[in-house]
Structures are given as structure tokens and as C-alpha cells.
Design a protein that fits this description.
32% of the residues lie in helices and 34% in strands. It starts with a helix and ends in a 5-residue tail after the last strand. A hairpin with a 6-residue loop joins strand 5 and strand 6. 26% of the residues are buried. The protein is built from four helices and eight strands. With 129 residues, it is α+β, with helices and mostly antiparallel strands.
Length: 129
Amino acid sequence: MNVVSLAVFLPIALLISGCATVTRGKSDVLEIITLPPGATVKTSNGYGCASTPCAIKMPRRSEFAVSLTREKCEPTEVNVTHKTSGSGGAALAGNILAGGIIGLGIDAATGASQELVPNPINVTMACRG
């Protein structure tokens, strides 16, 4: 392998060595389902949707509150956090086995090895009338 090839491929290999970052990405889709449907969703970090059921693309490392409101129903709030996912843990192990210290750092920095919990959010709202 010549020096030019090495100079081109080595940085690429280092950049893509974050296994979870490559395979899972930095975002997760949070599903929100209410009974009855039709609740408005707002999150404490500025996301939301007009009517449930819905799905919102969120950063995997997020911690936030989800506020659900619907006419004639009590407002409800659900706290969402993150944890290392099963496949994120596998990517972590892959980084360690492959000697991918850089990949390990990339996955940790991007949150790609994390997943949002709870997900999906299933809420039965207390409604009157």
C-alpha cells in the first residue's frame, strides 16, 4: 500500500470507527401514544407534535419532560431519560475488541450507544365527560 492510499484511508477508518454512531445514528424516534388519542405533545427541550399518536425524532442523549394536554382531560407529564441500549452495548464491545478507542470516544460523545426510556410512551389520560 502506498503512502497516498494510507493517507486517504486511515482518516476515513478512524472517522467511521464509532460503531454505534455509524449503525444507529445520534437520534432516536420517540413514539407517543395516548388513550384517548388526540393529545397535544410538548417537550421541555422544544420538540412536540399536534396530535397523538405521533413520533418525534430526538437526540439519543436527551433528558426531558413530555407534557400531554387534551381538552376535557387532566394534563399529564412523563419524564424521559436515556440508558445504554442492548445494541449500543454491543457496539461498545465491538469498539473495545477492535481496539477502537477513537470509536469508543465518538460513540460516547454523540450518544449513539444510548436509547430513550420509556419508548414508546403509552398514557391513558384521565378525562371527564
